[in-house]
Amino acid sequence: MTNKKDSDLMEKIVSLAKRRGFIYQGSEIYGGLAGTWDYGPLGVALKNNIKNLWWKKFVTDREDMYGVDTAILMNARVWQASGHTSGFADPKVTCKKCKKTFRTDDVGDLIANSGLDKGEAWVLRNCPECNSKDWDNEQQFNIMFKTSIGAIEDESSISYLRPETAQGMFVNFKNIIDSFHPKLPFGLAQIGKAFRNEIAPRDFLFRAREFEQMEIEYFIHESDREKQFKYWHGEMKSWMKEIGLDAAKVHELEVPAEDLAHYSKRTIDFEFDFPFGKKELYGLAYRTDFDLKNHTSASTVDLSYFDEEAGERFVPHVIEPTFGLDRTVLALLVDAYREDELGSEGDEKVEKRVFLKLSPTIAPVRVAVFPLLKNKPALVEKAREVFTMLKKEIPGAVVFDDNGNIGKRYRRQDEIGTPHCITIDFDTLENDTVTVRDRDTGKQERVAIKELSKSVS
Question: Which domains does the chain have, with CATH numbers?
Answer without folding.
Answer: 4-71+163-333 (3.30.930.10), 365-456 (3.40.50.800)
